[in-house]
Amino acid sequence: MSTPSKAKRKLRDGVADIASLWNSVVENHKGENPALQQRNLGMISRVLGILPHLVALMFTAYIVWIARPGSSLFSWHPTLMCLAFMVFMLEAVLLFSPISSVLRGAGYTTKRQWHWMLQACAVAAALTGFAVITTNKYMAEKQHYTSWHGLLGLIVCCAVNLSVAGGVSVMYPAIVFNMPVMLLKRLHAIFGTVVFLGGMVTMWLGLCSTWFTNNVHHDAVLALCFACPVIVLLYVMVQVGQKIFRRRAH
Q1: pTM, entire model
Q2: Within a domain: residue 211?
Q3: Is 222 inside a domain boundary?
């Protein structure tokens, strides 16, 4: 039997074993009392709440590890961009999550203050990372924004500034005349989610670059890295979507 066939067979058997294990767990929990089921649901909720933080931090740590910031001018670009979107911006958004917030017990005012401070750090890191890659291209006498990664990155960095302007209008609604505060909040949430989506897509395209693929030598690690932006993006989109639809229902 050829090696690819063996690998496919092992993968199929592994998936079947996982499915069988999951079915047995489900069957064992069917007869549990409601109190135990509630405790299990609480445990699952806590795990799901920790997951986006863990995924983002592990992804960022790996990128920083292979980039080795300080080894070259370019090394600061992936480092700063990961810090901007996968740490500062993600944490700023998750502050308002009912299950993933690190300030779950804090009031709205406290969360809002930490939100804009983290977003300020995200903007500073993103713009610095953008300036680094622009300078690096200029020094290497290479053309700018010739790839989808570079072009979308330029658009996202411009959109980040617009999102910040929207956040300022929410904090100081007197700046925008004749617009309800709730509408400003909803528009800010939607536009901010679109900006974060653009950031994750740009990061995903960056994972297709020659620099990244040359530094990753295991297919499994490559697949996990591609999955990380998708996971955190789904968390953000679900969180914002639930909040918007909840406001509409009220």
Answers
A1: 0.79
A2: yes
A3: yes
Indicate whether 40 belongs to any domain.
no
Task: Report the domain count for the chain.
Answer: 1
Closest-CA residue to 202 (of 136, 143, 129, 120)? 129
198 or 106, which is more confident? Answer: 198
C-beta of residue 95 within 8 angstroms of C-beta of residue 115: yes
Q: 136 falls in which pLDDT band (50, 70, 90)?
A: very high
**Structural domain boundaries enclosing 205:** 50-249
Token pair of 146 as six digits: 């010739």
Residue 149 has pLDDT above 50, yes or no: yes
Greatest mean pLDDT among 63-77, 134-148, 217-231 lies in 63-77
CATH number at residue 157: 1.20.120.1770
Residue 13 belongs to some domain of the structure: no
Please compute the mean of the pLDDT values over residues 188-204 and round it to a whole number: 93
- DSSP letters for 99-144: TT-TTTTS-HHHHHHHHHHHHHHHHHHHHHHHHHHHHHHHHTT--S
Burial status of residue 143 (CB atoms within 10 A of its CB: 0-12, 13-18, 19 or more): exposed
- Say if residues 149 and 202 touch (Cβ distance below 8 Å): yes
Query: Residue 130, class by beta-carbon neighbours within 10 Å (0-12 exposed, 13-18 middle, 19+ buried)?
Result: buried
Nearest-5° angle of CA 177, CA 185, CA 190? Answer: 120
